[in-house]
Design brief:
heterodimer; A: Elongation Factor Tu (Ef-tu), domain 3; Ubiquitin-like (UB roll); six-stranded mixed sheet; 17 strands; B: mainly alpha; about 55% helix; oxidoreductase activity, acting on paired donors, with oxidation of a pair of donors resulting in the reduction of molecular oxygen to two molecules of water (chain B); Fatty acid desaturase (chain B)
Chain lengths: ~350, ~375
């Protein structure tokens, strides 16, 4: 920053202390809060009966992302800021950030976002993150396997490749499953994109044709072992693919994105009282309830990212007590050990340095 | 078995105390369950109004040489400072709005326009005062370590001057609170080290000097030739805020009708007994909705002490329910207008400047408003004690 600008800012701070200038600015320009970057929904596009694309204009600099990454979206539900992660479907550098939200049955936040969002709604956005990425040098032979709303991170990749490196899609294969042709999110665009770039699009409508099991997939794509594969969809589909690649393929050539927290039936916590040492807030966690969920319900402000054990934004050191990692089933009870609060449930009373 | 009782709750059995605790818990739960969009809108509106008044007032005061601008600017800034300290600062720092998970309005991120840094104040206020409310020797807010507010406090000749230094305390209340938080009395009695006190003084000074610079150097300088009148305006606004908050806060715990407690009361104190101590140790102020907002809803001191982390905009709707509980259990519920309550506070400070003092100043509650024993009591009948 130029010395003059810095001096002006310092003067503005001296005049607004103990607040910051942006605390005043954000009253009239709510997107300008630096503590919580905001965005405005400028357009809402209905993709299918339960999927909606939200186009967001960021209040400050548009956060940089790479195709395949997700962004945290904060929305107010009954006065409470509630966060969910969604894959970015726009391309890096696009003026608007696009996320496509599918209403999950029983999902309070996704249902409201998909069905009740009006243009003009204010949301908050976090830094994009995620490791479901194409390498810098695009591999020659690509295979995408997606199902349902699993199309979203891959759509970000396809749109970017089609604009910047369409040759990479020539000869690529995309196997996508959904219930019917009408349920396919981005269906028309995918078909056009395939025709234009030479990508082979295999649409599988599970209502009539059944699910694509790994054997069927290898029949559809005989040279699958020669390809780098990106897969996103329901957990059991990804489990099947991972097993298959581990048994007969090259596991390092398979990249998967799980965007729903796995079910936690077999590994659970006992519940207990969680103390967050920084704020002094205490929360009672139910059986199998992660530290983050319990803390947020009690009003704690905790670092949070993907909320599914991927991004490690939420990690904090354990001070005392024991937790079970719901993803791995491991127990952590060493003081100072960093744990992911979004997927760790207390085993009795716990204090964490957050 | 109960070990100790206050004066006004001596007639209650252990079961009744537990039942009362459960009733108050239920009131709290019903409010917490219903928090939502309207409450979030309320606090954001107060934030907007407060910042608008502050920005508007300070802008007007850039032209403070014009008498009308001085008056309007000072008025706007006074209201802004009062809202900032009371309805916003005090309540947000209690965690009343943490449920919104909004990092802009949260007890862990909020800093206020007060000499005392919010973290330091939270400890002395939220923990010590709200936990040990009105327990002599434990709640330092009982007289703020420099005043004799109940006859049980031993008399000292220095108290002869308390009606006079109360005026100074009122004018410089914000500074008095900051100094009070350093706990020089504990340094003196040897329970706190000088190094700790010095470190805290440094922390306070680091914050206070930026506050002082803003009000008494920077904004006056920006006003050019109106520097002196802007300085007087800012000082006047700070004075109004201090005098107002001092009056409201003193009326919360020191008017007639409020009980203080012996340390023994804390032993094995049950949830219900804790509630009763908060009830008997606090007094409300009566007035309209705007008055309540300007007191930061500390006019609902009783409800605030029962439920310190329930959003302040809900105290008014809880108050009749709490009064009803008090009526049914035969407990006093002290309330009165600000002038009336403040008069009893001043009279008490004057009387207790001298040795001795009537039971009224801390014994059984005297005037109780809006409380008539009701017939057809649902709960186990309770014998009302003559006041």
């Amino acid at each position: 920053m130029a010395p003059l600008a810095r001096r002006v800012l310092a003067a503005a701070r001296a005049l607004t202390t103990p607040l910051l200038p942006e605390d005043f600015v954000s009253v009239w320009r709510p997107l300008r809060s630096r503590r919580a970057p905001g965005a405005r929904v400028v357009d809402v596009r209905r993709e299918t009966a339960d999927a909606t694309t939200l186009l967001l204009r960021s209040g400050t600099r548009l956060p940089a992302h790479r195709p395949g990454q997700f962004v945290g979206l904060g929305v107010q539900v009954d006065g409470v800021w509630t966060w969910r992660s969604y894959s970015i479907t726009s391309r890096p550098g696009d003026p608007l950030l696009a996320v496509t939200v599918t209403a999950v049955p029983g999902g309070l936040v996704s249902t409201r976002l998909a069905h009740q969002t009006r243009p003009g709604t204010l949301v908050r956005i976090s830094e994009p993150s995620g490791e479901f990425l194409l390498p810098a040098a695009t591999p020659e032979k690509l295979l995408f396997v997606t199902a349902g709303s699993g199309i979203t991170p891959v759509m970000g990749m396809l749109r970017t490749l089609a604009a910047r490196n369409p040759a990479a899609l020539d000869g690529a294969v995309h196997v996508h499953s959904d219930r019917t042709a009408a349920d396919v999110v981005f269906g028309p665009e995918l078909r056009t994109l395939a025709a234009r770039t030479g990508m082979r699009l295999v649409e599988r409508h599970t209502a009539t044709q059944g699910r694509v099991c790994p054997d069927a997939l290898t029949d559809l794509v005989p040279d699958w072992t020669a390809r780098h594969t990106w897969a996103c969809g329901p957990a059991d589909m990804l489990d099947d693919l991972t097993d298959h690649w581990e048994r007969v393929g090259d596991p390092s050539a398979l990249h998967v994105e799980r965007f729903r927290p796995p079910t936690w039936d077999d590994a659970t916590g006992t519940g207990g009282r969680v103390t967050f040492a920084t704020s002094g807030i205490t929360a009672d966690a139910g059986e199998g309830e992660p530290l983050m969920a319990a803390g947020e319900a009690a009003g704690a402000l905790l670092p949070a990212g993907c909320r599914m054990g991927i991004c490690h934004t939420c990690v904090g050191p354990l001070r005392s007590g024991a937790v079970r990692d719901l993803l791995t089933g491991d127990t952590h009870d060493t003081a100072g050990q960093p744990v992911r609060t979004c997927v760790s449930a207390p085993l009795g009373d716990v204090t964490i340095d957050l | 078995m109960r070990t100790t009782t206050g004066v006004a709750d001596a007639h209650l059995t252990e079961e009744q105390v537990d039942a009362l605790g459960a009733e108050l818990d239920a009131i709290r739960a019903s409010v917490v369950d219903s928090l939502g969009e309207a409450d979030a809108h309320y606090i954001r509106t107060v934030v907007r109004v407060q910042r608008g008044l502050e920005a508007g007032g300070r802008t007007l005061l850039l032209f403070s040489r014009v008498p009308a601008a001085w008056v309007a600017g000072t008025a706007a800034l006074s209201v802004a400072k009062i809202l900032e300290n009371m309805e916003l600062g005090h309540n947000i720092l209690h965690g009343q709005w943490d449920w919104m998970r909004d990092p802009d309005i949260h007890s862990t991120t909020w800093e206020w326009d007060h000499a005392s840094p919010s973290q330091m104040w939270k400890r002395s206020h939220n923990y010590e005062h709200h936990t040990f409310t009105n327990v002599r020797g434990k709640d330092r807010d009982l007289g703020y370590a420099i005043m004799r507010v109940t006859p049980e406090q031993p008399w000292h000749p220095a108290y002869l001057l308390q009606p006079i230094y109360n005026i100074g305390l009122s004018a410089f209340f914000e500074w008095a609170i900051a100094i009070y938080d350093i706990e020089f009395d504990r340094v003196q009695e040897g329970t706190k080290s000088w190094d700790d006190a010095k470190a805290e003084m440094k922390t306070i000074w680091r914050k206070a000097r930026t506050q002082l610079a803003k009000d008494y150097v920077l904004f006056p300088l920006l006003s050019g030739r109106g520097a002196v009148s802007t300085l007087t305006a800012n000082a006047a606004a700070a004075l109004v805020r201090n005098v107002w908050s001092h009056a409201v806060i003193f009326c919360g715990h020191f008017p007639d009708g409020v009980e203080t407690f012996d340390e023994a009361r804390l032993e094995n104190e049950s949830r219900g007994q804790w509630y009763i101590r908060q009830l008997l140790g606090s007094a409300n102020l009566t007035g309209g909705p705007l008055f309540h907002i300007m007191t930061g809803n500390l006019s609902h001191q009783i409800e605030h002490h029962l439920f310190p982390d329930v959003p302040s905009n809900r105290y008014a709707e809880i108050a009749p329910q709490v009064q009803d509980v008090c009526r049914r259990y035969g407990l006093p519920y002290s309330a009165g207008s600000l002038p009336r309550q403040y008069a009893t506070v001043l009279r008490r400070l004057a009387r207790l400047a001298f040795p001795g003092g009537h039971k009224r100043y801390g014994g059984s509650p005297a005037p109780v408003r809006r409380l008539r024993p009701r017939t057809g009591v649902r709960l186990p009948a309770v014998a009302r004690r003559a006041a």
